[in-house]
Amino acid sequence: IHQKLESDGTEKVEGSMTQRLENVLNRASETADTLFQEVLGRKDKADSTRNALNVLQRFKFLFNLPLNIERNIQKGDYDVVINDYEKAKSLFGNTEVPVFKKVYSEVETRIEALRKLLLDKLLETPSTLHDQKRYIRYLSDLHAPGDPAWQCIIAQHKWILQLMQNCKEDFIKEQKVGGVGLELDRSSALNRISLSAPVKRGGSFQTPKDDSCRYKSPQQVRFVVKLSEVVISQLPNFWKLWISYVNGSLFSETGEKSGQVEKLKKNARQRQNDFKGMIEEVTRRLVQLVRGALLPSSLTEQQLRQYGGWDTKTPLSGAWLTQVIHTVRLSHESLSALEIPNDLLQVIQDLLQDLRVHCLLTTLQHTEEDVKRLAEKEDWVVDNEGITSLPAQFEQCMVQMLQSLKEPMECKHGEINILNLDVVQDKACEQCVSIMKVFIKCLEQLSTKADGDIDTSHLSVDLASPDLFKGIQEDFSSKPEQRLLIILSNCQYLERHTFLNLAEHLEKNGFTTAEKIIRVSIEALRHLDEYLFETYIEKKSDPIVGSLEPGIYAGYFDWKDCLPPTGVRSYLKDALVSIISVHAEVFTVSKELVPRVLSKIIEAVAEEMSRLMQCVSSFSKNGALQARLEICALRDAIDPYLTSESRASFKQALEALPQLQSGADKKLLEEQLNKFKSSMKLQLNCFKPASFQPVKR
Hints:
Blueprint: H1 2-8, H2 17-58, H3 60-75, H4 78-92, H5 98-123, H6 129-141, H7 148-176, H8 189-194, H9 219-247, H10 259-270, H11 272-294, H12 301-307, H13 318-337, H14 342-372, H15 390-404, H16 406-409, H17 422-448, H18 470-476, H19 480-508, H20 514-552, H21 570-589, H22 594-615, H23 621-637, H24 644-655, H25 663-679, H26 681-684
Organism: Cirrhinus molitorella
Function: Component of the exocyst complex involved in the docking of exocytic vesicles with fusion sites on the plasma membrane.
Protein name: Exocyst complex component 2
């Protein structure tokens, strides 16, 4: 058009025609724009909005994700959050689109807040093993920095140690405000046995819910039960958490082997020594807290400041210590069942050994105190074996003591027999001998007590007919010699029966030094027996022996100048009656003592007669006959009780006399002897062997 117009020469018509046309067209365009601008603007806006809505609809998952994450976190649906996050990460993790990058950064901000929330929940205490595993798995899936599982293990370790320390401090505080447990009454060994095992094997450590029962046991015992409860309730989950950590099940329920899981398992294996140290610290803390409460002497001063502080003025009895041993054993069994290596539990085994030794020595010591009080229970009632109830009470006390030691002395799995330890064996032997000697000392004290110190209101002799012996009983309480006899009879029974029974019981219960204990005890008993026997003989023989010489020379009697014998003189009959009264006194208590006592008294009498005969310068015929008659009468009357010493004395006495020359003298001697035996037949019956038969009830 431009070229055509140029050739037609139209330039001169109002300028260039194309310029004019362009102007017309521009004006037309402007007019059109003016007419349709609003409509087109709305169309563009609609298209833009439609495109934005399409994008939102297509990528609504990402745009809704920040709000959905917040809602699901509030509901606790962490699995949903993690799944959505994984999906968003795979789709938009590397996007370059600004709007997507902006939304995704919001998602990451909320996920970081979730990681912090989960870690806080993970490290919260107390919490269950299930929750801990759940939170660790969430954090693993969220690729949390560091090692949350190990952080949880460290937190749990500190929590357990703090619980144990708090347990001790609570009891110490309770003790200071007056909540001191009542000590078990040790009035008898039987009382100690009755409370020996309130916690049954396999039972729980739960303390009584009833507050009225709360203070029945000593504080240290309740503390050990509570402390064990704390450890047994916490340590198994702690151990299981570690096992799950090591084998990787903590990070993946399905057991899939991802690079991250393998890396975490490798970290766990590298931390084995650290975890072993944690278990050692927990078991060591348990042991030291128990030692602080029950065995303070086994700790250093520094350890006592941390683990001590208990009131140990009233020592625990063997029964309470048995309960403590039972509790600690249950703890050890529970931990062993988790397959915790034995070397980590060795400190508990060492504690158990020390507690068993302490229980043994404490029980022996308390038994010694019980035995000291047995003297107060002597009732002086003699049975027809010649003994009181005291030997039986002593034997019962010892047997019950051994029964109470059965549980602590028993060797459970992994334990040793503490009596095989030389130090323990020596101490136990020494303590047992001490108990025996204390009892022997009780017998000695009873024998030397003044009449006023003894309650005689219940004294009696258990014989066939109480009426027959009523007079004897009335006199019985007033004579210390009778008490000597009773104790001598008890000594004899102890040596022949009680001590031998105890030796058997001691051997059955593992006391390898039983033979030595009994040997030393019997030696001490024999010393006492000998002393009491000599005392009794002295009291009884001295008056008889002392009456012989005055009796012989009564009425200015002279061996050189006397009448023919008409019978045995009264002094000898009096001496025999005195011997008979001793016989009766001894027989009333114990027929078995009769030969021993009478033989000794007769030895003294025979020795005195021999001395008196040897002191006579010369005898007349009648004097020699009279002397021979009296010596033979005395010797024949007490013949069953003659010993080699007394026979020798009588022989010496007869040798000091002139020999009989005529048959008439011999006949006269025989007649007078027969007359004497006939006249005193009733009295002399007691010396016959038949009288040794037991009195029948």
